[in-house]
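pasting for ref
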Amino acid sequence: MKTLAAPAPLIQSIRLQRDRRRRELRRLCVLLGALLMALVCVTLAIGQSVTAPLDVIRVLWGHEVPGAGFTVRELRLPRAVLGAVGGLSFGLAGAAFQVLLRNPLASPDIIGISAGAGAAAVFAIVFFGASGGLVSVFAVLAALVVAMVIYLLAWRDGVAGGRLILIGIGVAAMLQSVTTYTLSKAPAWSLEEALRWLTGTLNGATLMQAVPVIVTLGICGGMLLLQGRALGALQMGDEAAAAIGVSVARTRLLVVLSAVGVIAVATAVCGPIAFVAFLSRPIASRMTRASGPLLMTSALTGAVLVLAADYAGQFLLPSRYPVGIVTGALGAPYLLYLLIRMHRKGALS
């Protein structure tokens, strides 16, 4: 039986469209990278006081500049670095979950992973008097355990995206009740710390705090980027992906483990900065009008969101707000819009 070959003009047209999309994605990544660097520069130079760009450069090169050294090196630089790598982590992990499960609601802060980290961190602060690195350890371990529980509960001859999301939302609700109960029992001296952590904040950031986020982003984030082509195949469905040689079960497990690792460490250090993982890929998709995994584009979008929201919360609004408050104000209306749109399309019925 003869197989029909696609006409050469059709093949050429497909290749041209593919190359054009790749060029557009590269240009967008360059633009987002430039915007991210601009936000870093603004964070380093402009705050309650303005530092001349030349003085900022001299401080970064290790020179002592009276009136600027402490402000730039100890206060602004750690905040900018942690905000950038935290945003990259949130955006990358959120995109990986949404592509893997083929659902815009499949974000770590919607399906319970961030809620698990938050409940454990608050429990450790209130009942064990934990602080600093110990809180981060509790948060990371809890996020990993919650992700494993959700994955196992959703397993039934494979993991269906809709089932995992519903189970995740239910687990998140239970964990939120644990957090609420813990806060109700918190003494005054630990309640403020617990609430500060829950809002998601870059206040008091240090360069040492950014180290585990950078290492995890390099290892687990690199693994996610290597799985980008397989994730793109999974968007067409498990059967279609398997037909072109993708190991569906292996890819799914690698992506889940890597994404959970990235989001767990970022949440442990920065707190559960609301809706960054949820918003990053939809924004990136609107900018590119593409439907691929968009992992790198989403990561850069997440970093831009965190730095812009943090700067706005500190200097552009009438009062000072933690970054999580600002991103939450942005994300909540979009969540309602998305739910209404999905309901109208019958995706929630």
